[in-house]
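SAMPLE LOG
Freezer: B-3
Tube label: C17
Construct: single chain, 215 aa
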Amino acid sequence: MAEPVKPKRRYDSSRRRAQAETTRHDILEAARRLFERQGYAATTMEAIAAEAGVALKTVYVAFETKSGLLRALWNHLLRGGRDEVPVAEQQRYREILAEPDAERQLRVTVRNSVVVKQRIGGVVEVIRSAATIDADIGDLWRRIQSEFHANQRGIVESIAAKGGLAPGLDVDRATDILWTLNHPNLWQLLVGERGWTPDQFERWFAETARAQLLG
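STRUCTURE (predicted):
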């Protein structure tokens, strides 16, 4: 009598994807620790693989190059884990633009900015420093600057549409002011170098932005 045929085990693709995502996250976190501790130039892909507890080949398959890994780390931290969704398309940014009150709009912008800067502050400094020695990272730094300025302009245009800008202040100048106050370099100077707490920075940023921008 023939034995019954056993059904084939169904391939669990969701489990495989989850494992791959966990490995990717482990590599990104390992890279973040090493980049922030040692700097970009001194950190090797071999060291990142060892820190993450994975094979070197796994790191190269996932990110191809060290600059590609740093770029992926930036997107991961900036976008809060939603790596493929640009900031301008994320819900929190769309909600800022939709806020009907200009002063509240600015306060929420400041609050969200401080939350993000606590997440990205160390990596921003790594990117800024590496931009002078790696052409790919130089391109990344320029893209960061451009996209960041464009995002600030979107907020300023929304405030201006409500009639919220100070008299005589046009959108171009207001955008430059908000971009400067909100720039990661200023965070690094005041929090990283001068030892301000995030709460102190948030209060100062909110007060200064309101005084400079709103009517």
